[in-house]
Design a protein that fits this description.
The protein is an alpha/beta fold and 852 residues long. The chain contains 25 helices and 30 strands. The protein has an eight-stranded mixed beta sheet with strand order 1-8-2-7-6-3-5-4. Strands 10-16-14-11-13-12 form a six-stranded parallel beta sheet. It starts with a helix and ends in a 24-residue tail after the last strand.
Amino acid sequence: MTDDLDGMYDTFKALLDAFPPSEAVKRLEQLGISPDIVQSIRERHEQQMIRVRELEEPHAVVVDGRDTWYTGPQAKDKCWPAIVDLLRKDGWPEEPAIRSLDDSSTRVVSLLNHPKEKTFSTRGLVVGYVQSGKTTNFTSVMAKAADRGYKLFIVLAGIHNGLRRQTQARLVQQLVEPNPSRWSQLTGLDKDFTPHENPASYFGRSNGTHVLCVVKKNATVLRKLAGWLEKASDYLQDCPALIIDDEADQATVATNSINPLILEIMSHLPRSAYVGYTASPFANLLIDPGAQDLYPKDFVVNLPKPAGHFGTEVLFGRYALDGEDPELVDDGHDMIRSVPEADVPAVRPETRADIEGFEPVITDTLRRAVEYFWLVTAARRVRGTGNPHNTMLIHTSVNTAVHNSFKRPLENLRDRSTRALASADADFVSRLRDLWDKETGRVPAGDFGETKVQFEELLPELPGTLDSCRVIMDNSSSEDRLDYENGPVVAIAVGGNTLSRGLTLEGLSVSYFVRSVSAYDTLLQMGRWFGFRNGYADLPRIWMTDELAEWFRHLATVETEMRRDIEIYMTESETPLTFAVRLRTHPALRVTAAAKMRDAVVAASSYGGKRVQTHYFHTNADWLSNNITAARNLVASAAANAVRTEERVADGRYVFRGVPHDIVIDFLSSYKFHEKSPENDADLIIQYIRKRVTTAGSLRRWNVAIVGNPKGDDFTFAPGVCVGRNNRARLEMPNPAPDFADIKTLMSRRDAAVDLTGEVGNLTEQGIMDERREQLPDTGLLVLYPIDKVSRPSPAKKLRAPLDAEEHVIGVGLVFPEPPYGDSTVESYISADLSRVRIEDEDYSLLDGAEA
């Protein structure tokens, strides 16, 4: 019986190549298979579909009722096994790398329509990480879709020739070359799409090959493709097509030319699936879901973060999210080096008028960055492992004339350094030794499982390193290009937009980045330093201004919160048409370009179950004194009006219980939050408190706590209310902005339970929330922290510096109860004040250009 069932199930799988599952079952019935066996086959297939739907990774949000037909590769497949063979040759381990890729690509293919359905028009989105292997993922999806009968594959590969060419090369290597008789190409390495004479030769029934087309998002090119497909319409009725939109947030959303042309191309393909891939889905998630557009109405897949990937959070650190223990949130690696603001005019024109005739100056920080790059390259040659290429990125401006102006100064620096090495210049060699020892001391190789290369070991490699080092201007007006296909590369690449989207800079170890941008997605995509650094994870460094480092730290928090929101929706049975990911704002950054936000709405926020805390402060005496006065007034009023006061001298803590809410509102009206902290919006918090009081009878009473340090020097809030000052060092910035400190973490998990009774010391974050719901379901908690104005860091905190404020600092934490029956909301706009930010955004002039 089992053998019969196995045989019939193999027959069923063969039928699935020609028919969707429901139709394949009917064919079995027509063949006279007994109802019992048919039912067993259906149950086995359902079990296989459940296995795919319930994969641990990746998670997906899927529209209701969407069928899962693809259950994984089969023995007869050709395209996917060829990719696996190539990955194994490249050293990919079976676990977890190949297994994870297999699972994630299977999940995406399972959400496409069966290729034999009569008509379909799917919209999906796959969210990955910058430089995390998205190209390998969508190549795997294409391979598996081809193995199941998809015919036409259109890949929209950014807006620049460099990325289009790189993508074409990857797809040819992994799809076409292993199975050349199975593929036809409409585009080539150096040839974007041009119309072909005979569509039947590609799409006719007699042609069983898959058709590959890799095009730029360029209006002229896409118009040609749309016109050619229209002429081929007689042959496209039975042509299942998969459109992969790489960098799907760039140029696709809300553009007057590209967006309609993608939709027009889909209109000529009765069986088509559009799947966007991006690491910065901010724009895609702000499309109007009700419009006939490219909103991912059918599915959103969240790819897991690959092992060993360097992302925003790893490099820059981030702030704690609601419900996280701040002590467990890392500060990031000590790999960011500061470019003084005074250096910026030397490497980037201050105005458009300054571009003509601009000559950059090789500042001390830029020289150190270049010299460190040469040291890293030499050290990697000593190690002899990992990627054979070595690249440095210099990105200061979008303007091609500015890029080109760097060539002569950088080549002069290389030539002078070559001569200094040849003459054994003692001062030069001593400077390099000092730089190497300092950098390798700040980031120990052992922390990454590597062994430090001693300076004496790398010194003999330096002459050859400098001799092979090229200075390349990679931009839209340059003939020079980074070419990793013809042997190991050592290159200092100077560029702008052509280097900031999708393009992989092989062996990137050093970046010098002072470009100002206005949007989250643009900034995130410019982080070409994200990715994998096998064999040299201890060596990457990034030189940038302190302001940019702070923006990336904020962005790491936004990105983590966005992905957590997506994960929450994925576990709460939402669909793509009902979820709305929150995107926290920043005072100097847009979420995405204004045109892409035309469908963004006023954001409805709520504070139920949330924890709000201050981590940015001014350091001038007037601002701080105002907050001290506000805090002392609050404590005096709380002491006079509390139902009960608890003094815990041993712990340095006070709790004033049952304080009326209007006293808390008075404090929030007078206390000043730093303007860089949009999540600490006093007006919104006050609005929320008042709304809860009037509509739900909640938050009428508050517990006001003071958390001090029993070992600190005294700070007096009111007669008889005195605690020791806390120590909170600020994040180190070599060129700190005047009158600014970021302490990153204020509240501990224990502090959020200061007003709870019973044994709460070992509770998790969730445990604290559960206890608050049980003990204090309608009571808010406000915690005051007196912080010593000096606040020196402990020696173990390498990325911290003394606070050095002019007056003692008052930190504030707020903990809101989680409402049991729905929450109130208050509204804020997704917007940013860009009036004082000099920005150079992405150049979209190429979209409508005539280049092919």
